[in-house]
């Protein structure tokens, strides 16, 4: 029996021309494709446009010689964007990790965890290798050491931290999510030598810096999710609570995403306005670094400048 198609309410026998007409009528027009593309990528387009507008806005405002108070007011929408993102980090990380860990099968968690750790180590090693190679090639920060000198009015920065203490700080920080642990040092007198000179010893002292400890939060959330899964039926209600909490957090994230194009415009603009002092400091640091790293060239220039005077005095 011959199949029939329907065009405009009329039955038409199937043929090659009929199929082509149906396919052509089913294909969307260029305007519909454009509208569909804009609908799917509207947020990305608005964000990129916000960055470009922010660059132009910053270049215009930079020539207006704003005061410190006016610059603070100008940067307020961008500051609100950063505060919104910081606000959502804690519930987003904790709830998503607890829900994910609680939904996994505890018997397959060991294998999956091993694969995740292996993937993390391999990608970290690759990223570290690329970073070290690029650092040797590009040599970033050459001459920026002068920024730590007192001639620029900045405090000197000490970075002589032991490698062992860095690993110990990482382990200490992993088991606390209310603060970050950092090792500092102080010199303690331990006695005198044969000449009567006081001997000092560098002693590590633990310091706690305020701020959100993401590493501790991640470890606690994963272990807590596994513990809820181990409880069985008793932990199901709490797992459902964190699942609902995670869904509500994602709704908040979607709301914040629509503020990003507006906030990022003022964030980029304010950073461009504040770049003037940074350029001045880097320029001064480069000049001072060139003078410190090339004393022979400086000495030769001074000698050449003094040569004509010396010849005239002899003659």
TrEMBL record:
Keyword Ligase applies: no
**The organism's place on the tree of life at top rank:** Eukaryota
Gene Ontology cellular component annotations, sorted alphabetically: plasma membrane
Q: Tell me, what is one Gene Ontology molecular-function annotation carried by this entry?
A: symporter activity
Q: Which GO BP terms sit in this record?
A: L-glutamate transmembrane transport
Compartments where found: Membrane
Its chief place of residence is membrane
Recorded hits in Pfam families, A to Z, give: SDF (PF00375)
Q: Does the keyword Nucleotide-binding apply?
A: no
Q: Which UniProt keywords apply?
A: Glycoprotein, Membrane, Symport, Transmembrane, Transmembrane helix, Transport
The transmembrane residues are 41-61, 81-104, 116-138, 211-228, 249-268
Protein topology in the membrane: Multi-pass membrane protein
Known InterPro entries for this protein?
DAACS, Na-dicarboxylate_symporter, Na-dicarboxylate_symporter_CS, Na:dicarbo_symporter_sf
Family membership:
Belongs to the dicarboxylate/amino acid:cation symporter (DAACS) (TC 2.A.23) family.
Query: What name has this protein been given in UniProt?
Result: Amino acid transporter
The source organism is Anabas testudineus
Q: Which gene encodes it?
A: SLC1A4
């Amino acid at each position: 029996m011959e199949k029939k198609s329907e065009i405009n309410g009329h039955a038409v026998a199937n043929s090659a021309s009929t199929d082509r007409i149906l396919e052509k009528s089913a294909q969307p027009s260029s305007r519909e494709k454009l509208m569909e593309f804009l609908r799917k990528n509207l947020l990305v387009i608005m964000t990129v446009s916000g960055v470009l507008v922010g660059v132009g806005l910053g270049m215009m405002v930079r020539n207006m010689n704003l005061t410190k108070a006016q610059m603070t007011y100008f940067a307020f929408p961008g500051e609100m964007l950063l505060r919104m993102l910081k606000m959502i980090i804690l519930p987003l990380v904790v709830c998503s990790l607890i829900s994910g860990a609680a939904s996994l099968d505890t018997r397959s968690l060991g294998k999956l965890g091993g694969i995740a750790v292996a993937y993390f180590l391999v990608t970290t090693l690759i990223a570290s290798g690329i970073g070290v190679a690029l650092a040797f090639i590009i040599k970033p920060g050459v001459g920026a050491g002068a920024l730590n000198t007192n001639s620029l009015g900045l405090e000197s920065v000490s970075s002589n931290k032991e490698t062992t203490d860095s690993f110990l700080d990482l382990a200490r920080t992993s088991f606390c999510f209310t603060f970050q642990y950092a090792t500092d040092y102080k010199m303690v007198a331990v006695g005198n030598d044969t000449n009567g000179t006081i001997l000092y010893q560098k002693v590590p002292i633990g310091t706690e810096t305020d701020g959100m400890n993401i590493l501790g939060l991640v470890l606690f959330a994963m272990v807590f999710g596994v513990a809820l899964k181990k409880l069985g039926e008793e932990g199901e209600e709490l797992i459902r609570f964190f699942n609902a909490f995670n869904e509500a957090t994602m709704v908040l994230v979607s709301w914040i995403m629509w503020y990003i194009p507006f906030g990022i415009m003022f964030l980029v603009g304010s950073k461009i306005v504040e770049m003037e002092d940074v350029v001045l400091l880097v320029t001064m640091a480069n000049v001072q670094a060139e003078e410190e790293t090339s004393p022979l060239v400086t000495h030769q220039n001074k000698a050449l400048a003094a040569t004509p005077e010396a010849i005239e005095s002899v003659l």
